[in-house]
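[INFO] parsing input record for Phosphoesterase
[DEBUG] input buffer:
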Amino acid sequence: MSDTHLPKRAKDLPAPLWMIVDEADVVVHAGDWVDVDLLDRLEARSRRLVAVYGNNDGPALRDRLPEVARADLDGVRLAVVHETGAATGREARCAARFPDTDVLVFGHSHIPWDTVAPTGLRLLNPGSPTDRRRQPHHTFMTAEISDGRLTAASLHRL
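[DEBUG] output buffer:
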């Protein structure tokens, strides 16, 4: 998930997303939490949390979260960052910035994104579960890893 903007855009995460959090082996948040309370609750409910701060996150969140997070998930090299810049040229820019990464999760735009760079880097933006902006739906993503590779990524509409 990304761009939750709690409690400004919603009072809480949608119940279906909390159900996924409770079941997931790993939860990823790509920034713009706004309030540290959600970080505390996600840390308490997640088996493992991989998360970064975003441009709307203040000192309390920046003290606890990195700008870029990296994790090895059963052989899949994951990186998480909030902002990747303009959509034009994103794949090439991110492939150059994250050369030792298999999957990059990012946020900021609130626009779901799923592409593959020429280098094989998979770029995923889950959109926002609470602030759809000009998108038709609030969204989040789930992904599956098997045998050391990403085998599925699904966008979920709320």
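[INFO] The chain has a mean pLDDT of 96.
[INFO] shutting down worker
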